[in-house]
Amino acid sequence: MKRFILVSTILFSVVFAGNAQKYAVVDMDYILKSVPAYESANDQLNQLSNRWQKEVEALLTEVQTMYKNYQTELVFLSAEMKTKREEEIIAKEREANELKRKYFGQDGELFKRREALIKPVQEEIYNAIQELANSRKDKFDLVLDKNSNSGIIFAAPKIDISDDVLQQMGYGAK
Length: 174
Fold this sequence. Notes:
- The chain contains six helices and two strands, in the order αβααααβα.
- The protein is mainly alpha-helical.
- It has one domain.
- Strands 1-2 form a two-stranded parallel sheet.
């Protein structure tokens, strides 16, 4: 019986090893930093984000100033004037929040610009990885990003094809 289990285990191991899948690892951070279009797009997005953030902060500062002035003048204002000033402050605050949502919201301008600028670069990288994985004589069944939270603890440098992906894209390795 022990002999049967041992032979079965060895046979199973040989069959499983014969059908082993090929894996490769890429470093997407390294690839993205090596693609000039990505760096340029990232710089554009950072500049836009900073400019828009300053616009929103300017409106919020204006709201704070309006509120401080209101607090200072509160004792001198009639009930009608108090209501009017409160409504102005609330309207300005809504304007600031709406601007923030317009620029930075889930479907805001920053999201749209990121889609327009970065998605083509990501698709180019994906296509290069797919072509590379399918064109090699030892085709890869799975390509993993070693920098994502996929749970990879160790990746042997010999299976990192990041430089190959950059060459496939025409950028060469750094």
